[in-house]
Amino acid sequence: MSSSDHNIRRIRPTAPRLALAALAALAAALAVTGLSGCQVRPLYATAGPGTVAVTDAMRAVRVEAIPVGESDNDRDRIRQQLHEELVSALQGGAGALPATTVLRFILTSQKAELGLEEFRDVPVANLVSITVSFTLSDAETGRTLLTGTGYGNASFDFSSQRFANIRAQRDAENRAAALVATDIRTRVAAALATR
Description:
InterPro entries: LPS_assembly_LptE
Mean pLDDT: 82
Pfam families: LptE (PF04390)
Structural class: alpha+beta
Protein name: LPS-assembly lipoprotein
Strand content: 25-35%
CATH superfamily: Lipoprotein like domain
GO biological process, one term: Gram-negative-bacterium-type cell outer membrane assembly
Organism: Methylobrevis albus
């Protein structure tokens, strides 16, 4: 035997280790059998008898934008973009069904300068942030089913070309609106699935 063999301890199963292994096996078995009775189903699964599929319920959502304050061309354009993104996200191109629920939203937006070019005091990066407060309610009774707030941010680079900056800002606003629409669609789908 070498001197390094003396430093190695042989690990023998002891009663506490066996008990711990048995407890872990029992917990795993209980977890598997406990989850088999769970009633989780995919969000966009086909509906069972007597229920409405989530995709059909989403197609029956009417989207309404609520203007706030004085008219502003940039904010009006973003509001229209978000409206179109929501309609597309909810209906999926399949067309609308008669409205059973109404989704109303209020949009606010702002632009912030993230970085300035040294010695010129000119912004080189900007951030567009939109905040959307929304309410989903029953079309007949007006009962509120869901309220929430969605946030979307997108950055864009600022250059010395005026029209390139305008286009870059619009693209950033469109990306932020798409982010918010995806978030709201997921929340609406979850609320309609539990209805």
